[in-house]
Amino acid sequence: MMMKKRMVSLALVTAMTGSLAACGGSKPAETTAAPAAEAATTAAAETTAAPEAEKPAEGQKVLKWAMWDKDLTVYYQPLVEAFESAHPDVKIELVDLGSSDYQTVLATQLTGSGSDFDVVTVKDVPGYTTLVNKGVLEPLDDYIAKDSVDLGAFKGLTDQIKVEDKLYELPFRSDFWVVYYNKDVFDKAGVAYPTNDMTFDQYDEIARQLTVDTPGQEVYGAHYHTWRSAVQLFGVLDGKHTILDGNYDFLKPYYDMVLAEQEDGVCQDYATLKTSSLHYSGAFSQGNVGMMNMGTWFIATMADKIKSGEYTDCTNWGMVKYPHAEGVEPGSTLATITALAIPTTAKDKDLSWEFVKFVCGQEGADILASTGTIPAVMTDDIANMIAAVDGYPEDEASKEALQTSNLYLEMPVNAKSSEIETVLNEAHDNIMTGNATVEEGIADMNEKVSAILGQ
Asked: How far apart are CA 444 and CA 431, in angstroms?
């Protein structure tokens, strides 16, 4: 049991080694929503290259799978081995297109005349939208209906990636936002730990109870990184709004809450954070932050840095579900996904579907979890696997936090998402630095995004 736990720990602890290389991207790191680079917690199992793949035996069918970081990602090989074991007449060939410009290279190859991929990994929503618009991905709806695939297991994610009511990919990985907290800060303040059913009013009250404003002894009840998502995404948890609505009046209560906390010293000043380029991990590791909203990709860093002795002031930590507005189901949160799709040029689409269904379904999810990777399908057993990682908090609330109810994409499918994000980033920065009031910033978002959507 200890050996198994150590192996899972290794996979998760080293996840961040490849995360920044995994997705790349051109967004400004400190003003965007949580970048896919950090959300895609690629698990680097070893620093040495994997052995060269065996050549297919005579008579075996070959499925070519386009992906990135083949030799640094721990889950590829076990997924391939499991599928090949169940399908001895099939050989999976991994084709590494590199991580830095993966989506660009993939789109170029799929629109060219020489592509022979059977399955492709889709890194992000903008890349997915581009491929669908180019007409190079096969709709999956008929396959899903034929095999009675339960899309409910994806907790609403698949509804958000439909294009004109058609689904062209299935998620197999997902990271989502939670609240990390320092139990020592709570214990010192004599405040009860946060729960998995915490409203925003309760969250704000707890943060204020933890705060100490004595110069040189400051304790911040909450911390918000400089990504717009750290504030704006609070507003889309009700399932009624998205970040592409074109009208952002619904964001006002959350900006009001965070700005009031900032004014009262409950959280660190946004402008100071930007100027100092303080990373969220550095802020939390200092030991004077009570709660911090961040994605599950941070679990890897926490486990790694605590184990190595680099983090000494936040070793007694826990994790709970995202806070929610009144009337919103607890466990509703934001997600980023990695998915699989079938090119229109695939030579055996039925076989390609079998592989997609396997990786994105329960069998694939079990394998991903065994490597410390959070799958898109989360069950009690899978949550238990993740919670068994060496370094994960042992309390029941932290384990329960892995079970979500509703997952909402940070950036839904839209051909104009990049333009819209630029507007949202700029308005967020102006609001948080005081260059614009909340009302002015929201009016700016409303006007500019509505214009973009109306083009």
From this structure: 10
Supply the mean pLDDT for the chain. 87
| Cα–Cα distance for residue pair 327/82, rounded to 1 Å | 43
Q: What is the pTM of this model?
A: 0.80
Q: Which DSSP string do the residues of 27-47 spell out, in sequence order? A: S-TTTSSSPHHHHS------S
Least confident of 158-167, 295-304, 346-355: 295-304
| CA 357/CA 399 separation, integer angstroms | 27
Strand pairing of 220-223 and 289-295?
parallel
Question: Residue 22: its pLDDT value, please?
Answer: 35
What is the C-alpha to C-alpha distance for residues 243 and 38, in angstroms, rounded to an integer? 20
Longest dimension (CA), the chain: 74
By three-state DSSP, how is residue 285 classified?
A: helix
Please name the helix (run of DSSP H) or strand (run of DSSP E) that holds residue 295, with its range, or none.
Answer: strand 289-295
> At residue 423, does pLDDT exceed 90?
yes
| Extended beta strands in 400-441, E state | 407-409
CA end-to-end distance (rounded Å), the chain: 58
Quick check: 280 pLDDT over 90? yes
Sign of CA pseudo-dihedral 298, 281, 206, 236: negative
